[in-house]
Amino acid sequence: MPVSLVILAAGQGTRMNSDLPKVLHPVAGSPLLHHAMQAGRALAPERVVVVTGHGADAVTKATLAFDEDALTVVQAEQKGTAHAVAQAAPLLADASGDVIVLYGDTPFVRPETLEAMQAARARHAVVVLGFHAADPGRYGRLVAEGENLQKIVEYKDASDEERAITLCNSGVICADAKLMFDLVGQVGNANAAGEYYLTDLPELARKRGLSAGVVICPEEETLGVNTRAQLADAERAFQIRARAEALENGVTLTAPETVFFALDTVVGRDAIIGPNVIFGPGVTVESGAEIKAFCHLEGCHISRGATVGPFARLRPGAELAEDVHVGNFVEIKNAILDEGVKIGHLTYIGDADIGEYTNIGAGTVTCNYDGVMKHRTRIGKNAFIGSDTMLVAPVTVGDHAMTASGSVITEDVPAEALAVGRARQVTKPGLATKLFARLRALKAAKAKG
Ligand code: UD1
Ligand code: CA
Predict the structure, then answer these.
(1) Is 345 a catalytic residue?
(2) Residue 449: its pLDDT value, please?
(3) How many Å lie between the centroid of ligand 1 and the Cα of residue 81?
(4) Per-position b or e across 168-188, b if 16+ CB within 10 A of its CB
(5) Which end of the chain is less enclosed by CB atoms within 10 A, N or C?
(6) Three-state SS annotation for 123-156
(7) Does the reported pTM lie above 0.85?
(8) What is the mean pLDDT of residues 72-91?
(9) 228-419: which CATH architecture?
(10) Which residues is 378 bridged to in the sheet?
(11) H helices within 23-110, ranges in order?
């Protein structure tokens, strides 16, 4: 059955105490909103509508950054969750199949759980996702018998008896699109909060002789973020899950609790990740590659057999082919390193193409920025760049060429040539001894006053 998503993201998140809209606070390097969108993406939704409000422009931008086909609608005034869903109605008027409502601040609902809800739709017109809360607090309570849901009662409106129920509402709800918007249009605001509650839907459906059902998931999936403390909890929960998945997938993590993954990190089987490695967004590590301790990786691709670190930083656009070696205190940005390239120590490579089996000596810098524009450095295959070479871009070094240590290379070096770009050495016999004597005498004179 086709499905569309409505993601509620209009709230301010007052308790975050922040200028940033709540759904844009990051977990694992990506806004909370992206986590919710990712969970829904697994259902291959026909349409995705994000309801924005506080910080609408920024939230719209973040929505489109994740999915350029997503639609957004502004809920100018936040009058409740049913009112929020109603804003999406015009955008889904002709949608066929179901609508699933997700919250932008609830990042961890599993795709399998959403699939179970879809399956339960065969038995119920409206399906709500519930969980058994360790501390039910102010969650809405599900009044149910087995799988059959009678109604949802908001905490503010609940009797003592209802408040004793521990089966709570996650907020995720699924129904046929037409029915969903029809029922949402019927919701009133005669309740303790004076809000239009989406939680009225099961009862409204039952009044029409339709059935409502509940699907139960583990509480950890419904973890919502309302405070900075919960944001930290969410980060912890994400990392615990990501580490477990990596281990499960055949990745070696020598100290799993010190490795931080991003939402979209991909690590192949038999890769080895040392301690204290941080993944920013957009990293792929192929099978059998090794990332040693204390590396920061972002927007890069590391191929089979490559070794990186310890203490390396790969920035966006770093492409490492098979068997490349990048060692300690090396930074790579927007550069393509062909097979077998070696960059062992203390080097900056930015905006560059480096041919296969080229060796880059310690202390090499691609001087890629002239203060206004960026320029590219091109180095051929099997070249040897001597230690402490400054490559002043734009510049090209040919195949099998060499640069002498300490050279400042401002002109292209043809294939097979050796370029020397430094002052000649001058050696003065005995001069060191004379100089030391003079300096010591000066120091002694100073000490006397
Ligand atoms: C809601 C549920 C409650 C459930 C809880 C789970 C209702 C009436 N109550 O309560 O049963 O246990 O979530 O966390 O639905 N939002 C809008 N526009 C609005 C109002 C809310 O976009 O006008 C968004 C918020 O930004 C948030 C989500 O909807 O992402 C939930 O709203 P919130 O006010 O936090 O609902 P709760 O009171 O927590
Ligand atoms: Ca909430």
Answers:
(1) yes
(2) 82
(3) 6
(4) bbbbbbbbbbebbbebbeebe
(5) C
(6) CCCEEEEEEECCCCCCCCEEEEECCEEEEEECHH
(7) yes
(8) 97
(9) 3 Solenoid (2.160)
(10) 353, 396
(11) 32-41, 56-66, 81-87
Catalytic annotation, pick one of 83, 124, 132, 345: 345
Contact 409, 395 (CB under 8 A): yes
In which band, very low, low, confident or very high, does the pLDDT at 270 lie, cut at 50, 70 and 90?
A: very high
> What integer is the mean pLDDT of 209-222?
97
CATH hierarchy code of domain 3-222: 3.90.550.10
With a 6 A CB cut-off, is 10 part of the ligand 1 pocket? Answer: yes
Amino acid present at 373 = M
Question: For residue 344, how far is its CA from the centre of ligand 2 (angstroms)?
Answer: 50
Q: Is 140 in the pocket of ligand 1 (CB under 6 A)?
A: yes
Q: Whose CA is nearest to atom 38 of ligand 1?
A: 139
What amino acid is encoded at 37 in this protein? M
Q: Could you state, in order of their start, the residue ranges of all structural domains in the chain?
A: 3-222, 228-419
Residue 138 Cα to ligand 2 midpoint, Å, equals: 9
- 2-61 confidence digits (pLDDT tens): 999 999 999 988 999 999 999 999 999 999 999 999 999 999 999 999 999 999 999 999
